[in-house]
């Protein structure tokens, strides 16, 4: 990320950012409206910077938008924003479409990913009949089935109870992929490699979880 700035609706939302994100687990924290979601959306080209440029493994999020989208999976706060088909199986199959797999291979990959996320046999279940936690896991599975090399999650646990938060975090912990997670749940960041703190569109702290969280608490005090 080089000298990146972002405006939305004519207002500055993120101020000059120069960052190189290489760690496997990166957390993003800050008050409501501080720019966390905007920052997250820059990472996969959902938003284009109004100044500077954002590259992911050398690919420009604007010029190479398609390749970047394939590489960076994005999980929204509300799973309903990204689940588009009525059944779990159809929804997961959607992500596999570009791969043009044979039906049997497609079904096999769907079965495996559902087994991995505690949803074995859920192919024919109606998404709207699932619990919120199950829907969030389906949304996560729907992104992971595309095999992104980086996963960006925007407050993925906000709608979840403690049990489902643990299930989701266990699923995320098990990933070998790089993860960038926006969260208000500071406890989830304990084992992370690096945490970024935003305040009114500025990056005000960047470092180890304990140090940055302490800074955040001081900011709010
Ligand atoms: N679609 C939009 N158009 C204009 N301004 C927006 C839009 N979305 C968010 N903003 C503004 O950008 C700022 C940062 O928002 P956001 O990145 O969503 O923060 P956070 O995720 O930390 O709550 C806020 O001031 C918000 O009002
Ligand atoms: Mg947000």
Distance between the termini: 31 Å
Detail the poorly predicted runs.
none
- Major beta sheet, specifics? 6 strands, mixed
Q: pLDDT average, as an integer? A: 93
SSE succession: EEEHEEEHEHHHEHEEEH
Gyration radius over CA? 18 Å
* Major beta sheet, strand line-up: 7-8-9-3-10-11
Fourth-level CATH superfamily: P-loop containing nucleotide triphosphate hydrolases
Description:
Helix content is 33%, strand content 24%. With 221 residues, it is an alpha/beta fold. It has a single domain (2-83, 133-220), classed as P-loop containing nucleotide triphosphate hydrolases (Rossmann fold), CATH 3.40.50. Strands 7-8-9-3-10-11 form a six-stranded mixed beta sheet, with helices on both faces. The protein has a three-stranded antiparallel beta sheet with strand order 2-1-4, with no helix packed on it. Helix 3 runs parallel beside helix 5. The protein starts with a strand and ends with a helix. Magnesium ion (MG) binds at residues 36-37, 154. Magnesium ion binds at residues 36-37, 154.
